[in-house]
């Protein structure tokens, strides 16, 4: 059936509007008829039994004859096609904007980078055997390569702003004003007959008092409660009684493994624990100096109550009990021997994480922290020893990404995060000093990947402002993986540990590597080629300075 588009009434067969009842019949009105008004409109016909709104289209023409009607019909189909394309385009745009990246992408990302075929090596949660695994080269994505020059300009800008300026070391009185309670608890001198820094502290509680009732580590973490339950049971057995008073032995670590994350610190920690003269804190990574003493559990969760220094010292009570047993032995009392047991602490954030300073210290140094972690450690332990494990910062960053990223992990996603982080870092160094940007809490939380953690030399130079170079041992993960026995001997010598039997040494050096990379992370393969090139360019000036400071070109990481 056919209908007039102007009158919407039934037409006779082969009728092209001239015999329309309403327009040409008895009720015809010249003012209302489109043809009489010269609008030159003709109807579009459909043979369907029911009108469809998409079919009711007005098409202009010069004549209203049969051939022109056919021509108008073709224009109507064209309009329908165009309308359909517009709808499809809108749907696809909506599809892209909702984040469906695994389908058809019509608009490329503004930043695409790739990397050369890499050999991802051990991170903190990887096996040392991974250092010997080789990945197949990834396929080159041309769009990533084309964007390399624009990112190279960003890196060139950052490089031009690099200045390694020695920081001003705060004096002791300034530190006391900032942390008066800490200075009231930790004494100036330690027991002379102990290699490890320890002292006796009067305990004023009674037998019904829980010495760990308020310990924040026990309160906020269920997995630590078993440790503290055991400490409660044995606490009174290890008190020292003198003149009707009770004393407990308190200890600080003799050495710290201070960094860096994803550089094999866990493996080093696990091997050192096997040495008969080495003990560690009850928790591998207390993060007290960098986070807990400021009340930070997770920075994104805001601040909790600050963990007092007593809570930190409680973590060394197990080791202190063993040291006290040695101190109370006849060999020490009568023969003048000393305790050789030493305690270590292995928070991998100690070297670099000073993010909390902005919330607690006066910002009077143009964005640079007036006090750093090492200032306080040195104030209490000027003879402390520090161990640093490093790896190629390019591979460290990718391992860091694989470990901490929670979803949608891929080499392409890593590219995007590297690009965004480089832009943010560039924006900072244009306005502030390098040190201010490295320790900038807002910037570090905004960057999708932790670029700043790989700027090893910036942190090392700041530690060298307070500690002597011979108090710091810097190791490479690559050397540890290829010759573990040699690196462990370097550590034993640095800590002045006694000789080991062949059996003890074999247990330490031949035990399985700690932590393996998760299978789902292994399946992602290496970073893309241009990404690696970009990161090489970014870290190169920092690695060059590091090699100069340590007088070792191995820290250029040219062969990895």
UniProtKB/TrEMBL annotation:
> Which keywords does the record carry?
Membrane, Transferase, Transmembrane, Transmembrane helix
Per UniProt, residues of the Sulfotransferase domain are 253-517
Cross-referenced SUPFAM superfamilies: P-loop containing nucleoside triphosphate hydrolases
Q: Which InterPro entries match?
A: CS_Sulfotransferase, P-loop_NTPase, Sulfotransferase_dom
Annotated protein name in UniProt: Sulfotransferase
Family to which this protein belongs? Belongs to the sulfotransferase 1 family.
Give the E.C. number(s).
Answer: 2.8.2.-
What Pfam families is this protein classified in? Sulfotransfer_1 (PF00685)
Q: Which residues cross the membrane?
A: 78-97
Q: Which GO terms describe its molecular function?
A: N-acetylgalactosamine 4-sulfate 6-O-sulfotransferase activity
């Amino acid at each position: 059936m056919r209908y007039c588009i102007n009158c919407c009434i039934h037409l006779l067969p082969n009728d092209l509007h001239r015999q329309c009842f309403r327009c040409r019949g008895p009720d015809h009105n010249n003012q209302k008829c489109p043809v009489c008004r010269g609008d030159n409109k003709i109807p579009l016909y459909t043979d369907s039994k029911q009108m469809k709104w998409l079919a009711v289209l007005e098409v202009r023409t010069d004549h209203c004859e049969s051939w022109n009607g056919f021509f108008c019909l073709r224009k109507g189909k064209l309009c329908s096609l165009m309308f359909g394309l517009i709808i499809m385009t809108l749907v696809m745009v909506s599809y892209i904007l909702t984040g469906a990246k695994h389908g058809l992408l019509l608009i490329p990302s503004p930043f695409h980078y790739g990397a050369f075929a890499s050999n991802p090596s051990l991170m903190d949660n990887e096996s040392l055997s991974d250092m010997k695994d080789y990945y197949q080269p990834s396929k080159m994505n041309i769009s990533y390569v084309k964007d390399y020059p624009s990112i190279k300009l960003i890196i060139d800008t950052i490089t031009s702003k690099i200045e390694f300026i020695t920081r001003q070391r705060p004096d002791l009185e300034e530190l006391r004003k900032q942390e008066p309670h800490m200075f009231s608890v930790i004494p100036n001198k330690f027991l002379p007959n102990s290699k490890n820094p320890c002292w006796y502290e009067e305990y004023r509680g009674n037998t019904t008092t829980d010495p760990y009732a308020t310990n924040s580590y026990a309160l906020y973490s269920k997995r630590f409660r078993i440790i503290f339950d055991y400490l409660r049971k044995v606490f009174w057995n290890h008190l020292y009684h003198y003149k009707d008073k009770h004393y407990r032995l308190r200890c600080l670590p003799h050495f710290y493994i201070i960094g860096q994350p994803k550089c094999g610190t866990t493996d080093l920690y696990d091997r050192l624990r096997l040495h008969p003269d080495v003990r560690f804190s009850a928790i591998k990574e207390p993060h007290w100096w960098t986070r807990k003493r400021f009340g930070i559990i997770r920075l994104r969760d805001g601040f909790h109550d600050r963990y007092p220094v007593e809570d930190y010292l409680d973590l060394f009570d197990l080791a202190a009990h063993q040291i006290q047993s040695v101190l109370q032995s006849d060999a020490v009392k009568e023969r003048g021997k000393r305790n050789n047991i030493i305690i270590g602490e292995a928070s991998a954030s100690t070297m670099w994480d000073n993010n909390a300073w902005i919330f607690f210290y006066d910002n009077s140094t143009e964005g640079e922290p007036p006090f750093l972690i090492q200032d306080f450690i040195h104030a209490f332990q000027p003879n402390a020893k520090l161990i640093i494990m490093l790896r190629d910062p390019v591979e460290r960053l990718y391992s860091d990404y694989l470990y901490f990223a929670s979803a949608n992990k891929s080499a392409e996603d890593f590219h995007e995060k590297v690009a965004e982080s480089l832009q943010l870092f560039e924006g900072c160094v244009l306005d502030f000093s390098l040190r201010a940007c490295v320790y900038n809490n807002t910037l570090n939380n905004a960057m999708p990947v932790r670029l700043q953690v790989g700027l090893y030399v910036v942190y090392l130079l700041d530690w060298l402002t307070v500690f002597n170079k011979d108090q710091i041992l810097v190791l490479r993960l690559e050397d540890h993986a290829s010759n573990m026995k040699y690196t462990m001997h370097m550590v034993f010598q640095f800590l002045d540990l006694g000789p080991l039997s062949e059996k003890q040494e074999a247990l330490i050096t031949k035990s399985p590597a700690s932590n393996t990379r998760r299978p789902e992370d292994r399946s992602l393969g290496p970073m893309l080629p241009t990404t690696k090139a970009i990161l090489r360019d970014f870290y190169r000036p920092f690695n060059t300075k590091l090699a100069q400071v340590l007088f070792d070109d191995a820290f250029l990481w040219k062969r990895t």
